Amino acid sequence: MAMTCEGCSAAAKKVMGKLTGVSKVETDVEKKLVYVTSTLPPDQLLEQLKKTGKEVAYNGIKGTRTGSNMDTAGGIERILEK
To answer: What are the residues whose beta carbons fall under 8 Å from the beta carbon of 25, sequence distance 6 or more?
Structure first.
């Protein structure tokens, strides 16, 4: 996500927190990443995150770069980025 400050981070957490099926939202402003633990499909997460008015893109499942999927709280942790 095209985050530039903590305000952007707060906006991402706020819109994602409104979705049923999202159990955790973390952000990394420096890396412009939003980590979402959810049972929802990536398309639905992206549509919700777009409500911040920022550019967003799906970057995969956290941990797959090292070959391990991360199943947390009944959901998959997905990485959304700009």
So the answer is: 12, 13, 16, 17, 34, 35, 36, 37
Whether 34 maps to a domain, the answer reads yes
Q: Say how far apart CA 36 and CA 24 lie, in whole Å.
A: 6
Q: CATH number of the domain at 47, please.
A: 3.30.70.100
Q: Is residue 1 part of a domain?
A: no
| Residues spanned by the domain of 16 | 6-81
**pLDDT tens-digit series, residues 9-50:** 999 999 999 999 999 999 999 988 899 999 899 899 999 999
Half-sphere exposure of 41 (CA within 13 A, CB side): 3
